[in-house]
Amino acid sequence: MMKGKEEGSVSLSAIVNTIKGWIKIGSNDLAKVLIGNPKSTPRFPEIMHAAVFYGNLEMVKHLVAQGCSLTSVPKSITKPEGDKAEECAYQYREAPYIIVAATRGHL
Fold it and tell me: What share of residues in the chain are helix, strand, coil (percent, to 5)?
């Protein structure tokens, strides 16, 4: 067992990446279950960024209902998984959600 980590525990980054993956493919019911986990609350701005980035309006509404502010954008994002993960995390720039939506064509 690693020092400082409970056996069988899942990292916050893994939870956030799982939520973002489900948001991307539209598995909103699954994402909502993990969003209900208190561990994910501090990462709401990053999860909101994913919902806006992928044009998932249902998740945007759900996150707002859960208390996520549309004015608190993440300073950084968890490195996503996949081929372009490094590039995506490197290219992230703090920007209002409306800018993110506009650059993705989701207005």
Answer: 60, 0, 40
